[in-house]
Amino acid sequence: MQIKHDPATVNAERIKAELIRWRRHLHRHPELSFQEKETSAYILHEIKAMGGFDIHPNVGGYGIVATLSNGEGPVIGLRADMDALPINEHNDAEYQSIHQGIMHACGHDAHTAMLLGAARLLSEDAKAGRLKGTIKFIFQPAEEDTNDAGLTGAPLMLQSGLLDSIDVFLALHVCPWHATGEIQVNDGPSMANIDNFHMTIKATGGHGGYPHLATDPIWMSSYFLQGLYSIISRKIDPLSVGTISVGEIHGGETANVIPDEVTITGTIRSYTKDMRARLVQELEQVANVIPPLGGTYVLEIETGEPALDNDRRVNEVIRRAARHLYPNMKIHEGPFGMGGEDFAHMIAEKPGAMFFLGCAKKGTPERKLHSGDFQIDENALPIGAAILMNSAHRLLQIEEGRKVDD
């Protein structure tokens, strides 16, 4: 890949060893959502050592907002998540997780390292007078899980008020289906609205040898499931982005007893507000099949993350930054999939975008996200840090109305 001799690329390569050190330390010491105490302490230590930041710890849990300001001007928010997953690691790297059953299997260690790298480089720019405006570095906890109130880290950090002044948000995510030196961007909805449902079907149950004397929730659930799966196959436009999947079914404890209750749990995914509402409405209608069959039901919908709706203008900044720094970089266009991303909360009201950063070594099998053998090519780290740095400069210039040189 061609690399332009630019301060962003030169300096990102200069600190490559630090990027790797940060990432490996975090990978070796993963912590689950809402438990990132040591992760937060490590980030605080590294940020304080850089100097020049106004630091707010313990935001939305163990989150950190580190503000770099050099005079009046726009405010840009750069965000990285920092929690790990409850997954056993199956790699044999010397820096593999030391915590059994916990692993950075979604690249949040790399996201945090690259944001630390961008903070390091932009703080050097600020000290040298090359930065005008304010950048808030957002180290976010709990992207992967919710608290008792059903909230992840992003809305909790937003509730603090520390992000209210931000004009534009920017984030990245490592991408194992593209090689190092490539990125993927998408304008508009790019990851899904995430809602979950919990359906409880209640009946009388009874003896398995006398089914005519019982009302059977297992039998009733078969009609509910037929209706549920027909929503996608027969009621939704195949060109629309939306689906419903069942993940759990529980009912009964022994072979000769018809249970009095069956529970069905699943997920609802969509890209638009209209489709999100339509799928819930259709599911509620399907649930109405239960009373005529002799049972009752309780259908609960847990509203989760909104769709990740990338701003076209911010995406264009990312594209221009990438092409400026790496002239022949391959830029893939297209949605990122039906997974969820709570960064969507941050860009629901303010412009912003997330891009996906290729992290796979060419010629090697894909190491899928959320798998025990997930691994990245660490050569992607300086690329991500450089694009964040250059994009931040461009956004500050654009927001202030200054001309951006390509």
TrEMBL record:
It comes from the Bacteria. Residues 193-289 form the Peptidase M20 dimerisation domain. Gene3D superfamilies: 3.30.70.360, Zn peptidases (3.40.630.10). It holds the Pfam family Peptidase_M20. This is Amidohydrolase.
